[in-house]
């Protein structure tokens, strides 16, 4: 049985790779929404993919580190309320990890639904609650703006994680052999 908070060498390597990919996608592959400082970020699909494969610690670190580095490079310093929300989003998605059998080559419709329910709940908590509240507390931002940004981020990040994350998990699961799928030829 997979342990929820197990952290092996393989997980450390995946965390580094995931954070780097998250950072690059966060910086360069995004679609404007028309709402100030709120884009559809493809990075959340990668974050959700890695979180589902390696668990909440890896997912949380990937979202947190990737977003913090991206902000530091692009703007000179991280916008901590959203960095924390990114970490919470990917951390939350990682809770689906023990329930999935991707390494066994299984990622069916029930797994897709489970993954997407968890990622939507994680995005909801992070973007509609955590990010706006921290924006108000840390940066004294106007509530109407940050809650609008939070709702748009929730929707766009849920779509990104749902579409990109699901596609990557389906493809990855097909690269794994299902138990008992090999048969002896006569």
Describe the structure.
The relative contact order is 0.16. The longest helix is centred in the last third of the chain and has 32 residues, at 143-174. With 186 residues, this protein is mainly alpha-helical. Helix content is 69%, strand content 5%. The chain has a single domain (10-30, 40-174), classed as Arp2/3 complex 21 kDa subunit ARPC3 (Orthogonal Bundle), CATH 1.10.1760.20.
Question: How do you describe this structure in short?
Answer:
Helices cover 69% and strands 5% of the residues. It has 186 residues and is mainly alpha-helical. Helix 2 packs across helix 4 (80-93).
Keywords:
186 residues; mainly alpha; Arp2/3 complex 21 kDa subunit ARPC3; two-stranded antiparallel ribbon; transmembrane
Beta percentage is 5-15%
The first-level CATH class is given as Mainly Alpha
CATH names the topology as Arp2/3 complex 21 kDa subunit ARPC3
Mean pLDDT: 93
Membrane topology: Multi-pass membrane protein
Protein name: UPF0397 protein NK118_08645
Main location: membrane
Subcellular location: Cell membrane
Please describe the topology of this protein.
Blueprint lengths: L8 H20 L1 E6 L2 E4 L1 H12 L1 H20 L4 H14 L15 H31 L3 H32 L12
Antiparallel strand pairs: 1-2
């Amino acid at each position: 049985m997979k342990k929820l908070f197990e952290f092996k060498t393989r997980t450390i390597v995946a965390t580094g790779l995931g954070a780097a990919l998250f950072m690059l996608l966060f910086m360069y592959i995004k679609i404007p929404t028309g709402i100030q400082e709120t884009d559809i970020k493809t990075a959340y699909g990668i974050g959700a993919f890695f979180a589902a494969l390696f668990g909440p610690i890896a997912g949380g670190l990937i979202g947190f580190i990737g977003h913090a580095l991206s902000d530091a490079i692009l703007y000179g310093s991280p916008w901590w309320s959203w960095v924390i929300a990114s970490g919470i989003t990917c951390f939350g998605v990682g809770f689906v990890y023990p329930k999935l059998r991707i390494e066994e080559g299984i990622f069916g419709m029930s797994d897709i639904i489970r993954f997407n329910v968890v990622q939507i709940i994680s995005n909801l908590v992070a973007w509609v609650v955590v990010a706006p509240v921290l924006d108000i507390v840390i940066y004294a931002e106007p509530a109407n703006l940050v809650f609008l940004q939070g709702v748009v981020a929730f929707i766009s990040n849920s779509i990104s994680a749902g579409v990109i994350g699901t596609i990557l998990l389906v493809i990855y699961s097909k690269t794994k052999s299902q138990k008992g799928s090999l048969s002896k030829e006569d």
